[in-house]
Amino acid sequence: MIFNLDHWLEIWQTVRKNKLRTALTMFSIAWGIFMLILLLAAGRGLENGVRYQFRDDAANSIWITPRITGEPFRGLKAGRSVNLTIEDYEMVRDTIPGVEHITARFNLRGNFLVRNGLQFSRFPIRSVHPGHKYLEKTEMRRGRFLNERDIDERRKVAVIGNRVVDTLFKQTDPIGQWIDINGIQYKVVGVFTDVGGVGEQRMIYIPITTGQAAYGGANRIHRLMFTMGDADLEESKRIEQNVRNLLAERHVYSPDDPRAIRLFNHVENYQRFLQLFQGIALFIWIVGIGTIIAGIVGVGNIMLISVKERTKEIGLRKAIGAPPSDIIGLFLLESMTLTVLAGYIGLVAGIGTVELVQHVLGTMGNPPEFFRDPHVDVHAAAGAALILVLAGVVAGLIPARRAAAIDPIVALRDE
Amino acid sequence: MIHINQIRKSYQMGSLSLEVLKGIDLNIEEGELVSIMGPSGSGKSTLLNILGILDQYQEGEYHLAGTLMKSLSERKAAYYRNHYLGFVFQSFHLLEFKNALENVALPLYYQKVSRRKRNRKARELLERVGLGDRAEHMPNELSGGQKQRVAIARALISDPKVILADEPTGALDSQTSDQVMDLFKEVNASGKTVVIVTHEAEVAEKTSRTIHLRDGVVQNDTHNAGVAS
Ligand SMILES: Nc1ncnc2c1ncn2[C@@H]1O[C@H](COP(=O)(O)OP(=O)(O)O)[C@@H](O)[C@H]1O
Ligand SMILES: [Mg+2]
């Protein structure tokens, strides 16, 4: 049937008879698909934007910063500072199940003058544990990251970002060289890069114990961070609660005191965003499919009108021997042709528009961070195509059956 | 060719049953040229539709070319209509968006005859009905008589055994009617069985046998001495 030229000629003849009507119907289908593609791509763009926001830090991590208690507890007043120490780090590391890589941070405030011979500049410094590497997704380029011996022996070693290398070392290999940070000599043991951007790539890491000793920190820490492997949201919440309880117990404040520490559970936030985008994606499909259904109903309506107008013709065809299957096929093929053709136009226009937007985003100096790489994936396009063919069948089914049911006697009665 | 035995047909209209054919017996042999006459509403068209397998009947039997035509599936009915029968209607029923040639060729399309063969045969038939030079004309470019000749060519193209015509001259003036009737006689002379429903005496006179219907029964069945069949 599909390969029968006569059928195509018949369809072409009827389409030509009703140009405007056909054009309007096809437009509504094409528009539906076009919008579906655009919406899907936009949803994808937003989702990629959020993923980009989370790209720097491990998404399976919890970050804790001590603050000041907000509630009185066990006879103690509100307003006490919570001072976290290396002991807290060790307790969390050793007693909380599910904690994977862990590090504390001792902050060295401001930028430090860092010198290599005659080259010098100011860079930020972080003193951390070896586990820090996993929390900032630090990628080693050369040498190694900090290790436990660096910590235990308070070694004066530094792991420097590739931007630091660019500024201080020009052509020479920095590994094994000595740099001067605020008057103290550190040996460079590693070079890293970081997808988090220029700021992260200008960082210098030193052992936390070295940092604490050099800058009078005793065993104070400013932040505690750890990853949780592939823990799901529920498990991350359990680990979070255990840590909260442990710290509250150790520092004597209410575990429900929201001000005592600031805890940021990336899993939770990440999951929330992902759920949000799953919701948006679902919404987009519903809206898009709704639009397409409107198109289908339009085509179905047009076909019904067409059947009505062609009653005499159908009656005549049946009188001269057209079997019902042939009549059904004629109308099904017509509606499928209209929907598939129109849908294809919408599909191409939609993908073209998305490509154009992508191109424009690509040429922008600093593209918006919340909207990145919108695109239509193969599955969505294939899904849309499948929907189209089905739509064509559905749209044609009722009119085709009505056509096949036409009684030639009634259709051809001379009055 | 056509054998009808005690056919009854009634229309159900709500709770009312209107009996239109009340036991018709009729035999038409191969090669006859028959007219069916009768007052309006006497059941002529109903009978012709049954002969044409467009309509069902409740009682009796109808054999066409030796085959019983009763309770056929739509597909079977379509097959017999296509292969055994040719229809001619009062208002021609040509498809407006097809030219004369395409209209004539249409029945062969449903026999899956190739396009070239179809068109060749259609052209032959248009020549035969005297419209060889009108093959590419659209129906709205043809006169009533020409349209009916195109319709007759269409009825003939599948080489059917029987041609059924319901008031084929009803929309034509008397001169054109004569021409169309001459064409039917020619068709009949070539061996086809022809059945024409009419209420015009001049038309009936041109057939070799006239069946008069009245109130759903055959009232009269006369052979016209002057007309050879
Ligand atoms: N589909 C139908 N439903 C109900 N009554 C019908 C139908 N078709 C025909 N009739 C009735 O059957 C009778 C015979 O109709 P018809 O065969 O068309 O007569 P004729 O062709 O002799 O004028 C008429 O009374 C007509 O009203
Ligand atoms: Mg009638």
Structure in words:
Chain B: Belongs to the ABC transporter superfamily. Macrolide exporter (TC 3.A.1.122) family. Chain B: This is ABC transporter ATP-binding protein. Chain B: Residues 2-229 form the ABC transporter domain. Chain B: Pfam families: ABC_tran (PF00005). The complex is a heterodimer of chains A (415) and B (229). Chain A is α+β, with helices and mostly antiparallel strands and 415 residues long. Chain A has 14 helices and 10 strands. Chain A has 2 domains: 5-54 and 272-413, no CATH class; 103-219, no CATH class. The longest helix of chain A has 44 residues, at 266-309. The two termini of chain A are 35 Å apart. The mean pLDDT of chain A is 86. Chain B has one domain: 3-Layer(aba) Sandwich (Rossmann fold). Chain B contains 7 helices and 10 strands. Chain B is 34% helix and 28% strand. In chain B, the strands form 2 sheets. A 6-stranded mixed β-sheet of chain B has the order 6-7-8-3-9-10, sandwiched between helices. Chain B has a 4-stranded antiparallel β-sheet with strand order 2-1-4-5, with helices on one face. The mean pLDDT of chain B is 91. The chains are: A alpha+beta (415), B alpha/beta (229). The complex binds adenosine-5'-diphosphate and magnesium ion. Adenosine-5'-diphosphate binds next to strand 1, strand 2 and helix 1 of chain B. Magnesium ion (MG) binds at residues 44-45 of chain B.
